Amino acid sequence: MNNSRRRRVSVAAVGLTVAATALAACNGVTKSEEGSGSSELTVGWNQPFYSLNDQTGTGNNVTNANIAYLTNSQFNYFDADNKLQKDTSFGTYEKTSDSPLTVKYTLADTAKWSDGVPVSAADLILGYGANSGNFNTVKADDVKTDENTGATTAPKGEAYFNAAGAGANGFQYISKFPEVSADGKSVTLTYDKPFADWELDFFNVLRTPAHVLAAEALGTTDADAGNAAVIKAFQTKDKAALAKLANFWNSGYDFADTPKDKQLLVGSGPYVVSAAKKGQYVTVKKNPKYEGDHKGKVDQITVKFFTDATQGLAALKNGEMSAYEGQATVDSVKDAQGKGLDMIRRPESTYEHIDLTVNNGGPFDPKSYGGDEQKAKLVRQAFLMAYPRQEIMDKIIKPIVPDSELRQSLVTFAGAPGYDEISKTNGAASYGAGGEEGIAKAKALLKQAGVTKAPVVREMYDKTNPRRAAEYALAAAAETKAGFKMVDTGDGDWSAKLGNKSYDAIFFGWNSTTTSVLGSMANYVGGAGSNFQGYKNPTVDKAYNQLQFTTDQAEQIKLLKTIDTAIYGDAVTLPIFEFPGVVFYDSKTIGGLDPAYLSPNMFYGFWNWTAK
Amino acid sequence: MITFLARRLTTSAIVVLISSFLMYFLVAIAVDPLSVLRSSTMPSAAKQQQIAHLTAQLHLDEPVIVRYFDWLKGAAGCTYGMCDLGTNWRTHEAVTSMLSGAVVTTLQLVLVATVLAVVIGAAIGIVSALRQYSGFDYSITFMSFLMYSLPVFWVAVMMKSFLAIDFNDFIQNGGQFSAVWIIGVALVTGLAVGAACGGGRGRILRIGAITALAVGALMVYANLTEFFVTPSSGGPLDLLRVLVFSVAIAFGITALSTGLRNRKALYSALTVAGIGAALYYPMLYFWNAVPASWPIVLLLGVVAMLVGIGVGFAWGGTERSRSARTAAITAFFVAGMLFLDRLAQTWYDYAHSSWVHGRPIATSGDSTPNLGGSYWMHTTDLLTHILLPSITLVLVSMASYTRYVRASTLEVLNQDYIRTARAKGLTERTVIMRHAFRNALLPLASVVPVDILFVLGGALITETVFGWSGMGNLFVTALHENVLDAAMGYLLIVAVLAPLANIVADLLYAVLDPRIRVDA
């Protein structure tokens, strides 16, 4: 390049710059970006979402239930005070006869799926059919996984609905096919025998639209035809059709990323899922077709997932979300206090309890004393009396939830019908709350029993859980003072060892999801699935059996009282505390939070949430 | 070469087989899919039914060995494209599809972190070696051992607290440095740069003072222009800033690449800087007209380098290839400046959008949910999310690179050929950049591939703490939720990568260092 050319190039470059600068006229070449303009809330939960059908054995998880709760309506729900409320904008139900128990469900005109199709009898039939277990043509152990597809398919052509609630609800006692009204708006269920918790049978059940399932599984794209096809499949027990429906129902709704098939997102609630990203978040936005009473106040709610509370609290503090419910520990509460976050602290529906094994030849088994029932009972009473319940409460629970109280019933909880009445007379009070007084009583009881050598108690618990390790330390100290010789058999693998007789005492949690009167049945009936302590009392068994088929509430409470009193009298188990629950939130950005005792905890009353 | 490869691959395959068996066995013992069912309060009939169902589904009634070979049969399919690593029994998702999503997320993180750690670590290592036994060297040694021994999770939590929460507060309060901050930061950087440049006390003080003044001035400038709120608005002042930085880059690159005495190279680099500044406004119009995307941006980066080469050849001179090289590297960085400036123009809109609420640096997740807007918004979003985890990974992995490079530079500098080079009168720049630099970096070739594996391990914690759903998160979740197949998916990938990384390291070394042969 010679000099003159170089100069020309430079001049051109400078000229271009000047021209462009002049053109730009100071600022504003780049277009600015627009926001979304809608009101939005972001809240956090402690476990990632993975299925929109929380009714299946695999999808049955609180995190999925929360999203399904936001996106579906139902006949009834629990409020923050554990009272069962009815949503008449979705439908109504009434008991039309006691013998045989007959219940008529009628859907409101305002009950619509988010694709505009009205909720109809077919959806109720599907809910009943899938959750009853009555339409499964195979037994559970015949079901094999196809190694190539991995789907949990039943043997070819057989139908198996893998329903979490099968065998627990009252649907199993309905063998007569429900009566569907001509207008397709109501269904009448006739129970073979009265069922105590009949009112909860459709609770949390209506998650999957029948017409969508028909389209996905049977290929019937027309909504009315699809609804009819679903009813027909169940009515005629059409094995081929039921097998297809069951397959899709079991796993078709499992997704963690926004599915390509938008039909899966159809719901009947105030919100519909609009986007999801695996392990990160689910976003629901207002369902424009929703006409019910629970219309939300915000346009969009995003639920983010933080498995670790420290993480969640940092994100909350950083304004990435407005509320978070995660593991409530002393550390997370302190962390939140340090960060200046707001908290709603209250007990939740899982409770810790101490169980004594009575059939393993250990210190609590009458066999050890030559079949002396009375002596074994005195030893059990001594152990339970000395159990430092108040100390555990004060040292471990109150720092998290200051106004926690000892739970005084094994079969029901504060707020559920009859709790006050039952807890006053069931004998729970006679156990005291441990401490010096309890230890003194325990010593006296052991003396009375004539036990001279300190009974050896092997206590099992989840050793990997720091809170439980701390509980054990407190309990072991008190029991040793009372005259027991404690052996630490804590084990991370405790749940696999439940009921294997290798321990004499164990503490762990029981969870209630409803105010069902039968919730505790499996724990205390002789030989039942969750009765790991070998407990058997004919009075209790008989009362539960009666309770199962009692629909009158006063009668139910009377039976529960009998059961509770009998179990307390036998000194085999005691509740220790209710799990502390904490909703961390930022009052500057969210309003209307009113967390419930029962699941969906923080999400209860989401329609009252406001974004500030 | 071929026998070497064949031998290594065979032994690797055996290693993978044995380790996968051991891991399958151990994980199978550790996880218990039935635990949740066992401790649930559902009625006994329903519970028995579900336990039976799950047992049948997962073949829990069969011995672990049988289940392992079942799994191996599917996994062996990966060698001929019929991969079946099983299914997550809870979510019914195929493990292969779980992995494909997670691998991408993790790679993003690990690649960014590794590249940054190697570049910064190597640079610090070399400088530290050149100033051996100086205060700077001792400080770097101290710092790198400190970083080396820091637990990742602790660093991560500190990052969140200071770089996210406090920094966002800082931005929300208008992004103004206080006088204390300005003086403090200016003094510390001045001291560090002065010490790094070395020389006598007078020289250190002089350079330190100049740097401190420059840094102080920059911070005052940031205050005045509210840099952290609106880093760029596309006005003439921003153009001027791009020009100044481009010229500085041109000088810097030339100084390292050919030395400032090579005037043709310097002019080439300066020309490129000028062209970059001249294209400032045309490019803004260009981005208004053309929706940006990664392919376009990368293509433009390549075009910029080609233009650089052209400019270098046009200036010519005795060694036109050197001018071309200098200009091309300068062009790359100048194009990067333009890119960053355009990105900075989106910063205000991003930070104040309805999705971000004025607090741009995120403590968790790999993206803002439902973020709308253009490529620029999404790229800003990626940066604000990847910032903390990558800094964390860089901090803890950079230290080892610094040590490696420092040691190897010292070794190289003591070699005879370096003495010869100095003796024949080459400038210090030529001796170090041309003769010492490349050889000093050689050991990295064998360290980096293996080290990526360790970063992958570190990413496990980083991902968990920062809520990225990558490989590490997948593994941890799988163990928590008793999903054997998903845990094995992660372990299989690591088991395959480990021997593979070693082979790559060996081959790379052989290619770079002609003294090494891999026949054997």
From TrEMBL, chain A:
Q: Which domain of life is it from?
A: Bacteria
Which ranges carry the Solute-binding protein family domain?
95-531
Q: Which residues form the signal peptide?
A: 1-24
Which UniProt keywords are present, listed alphabetically? Answer: Signal
Q: Which CDD domains match?
A: PBP2_Lpqw
What's one Pfam family here? SBP_bac_5
| Annotated InterPro entries | Peptide/Ni-bd, SBP_5, SBP_5_dom
* Descriptive protein name: Peptide ABC transporter substrate-binding protein
Q: Which organism is it from?
A: Nocardioides phosphati
Automatic annotation (TrEMBL), chain B:
Transmembrane helix is among the record's keywords: yes
Q: SUPFAM superfamilies attached here?
A: MetI-like
UniProt keywords (A-Z) are:
Cell membrane, Membrane, Transmembrane, Transmembrane helix, Transport
Q: Which PROSITE patterns match?
A: ABC_TM1 (PS50928)
* UniProt organism field: Nocardioides phosphati
- Per the database record, which ranges form the ABC transmembrane type-1 domain? 103-509
Any idea what this protein is called?
A: ABC transmembrane type-1 domain-containing protein
Return the InterPro entries for the record: BPD_transp_1_N, MetI-like, MetI-like_sf
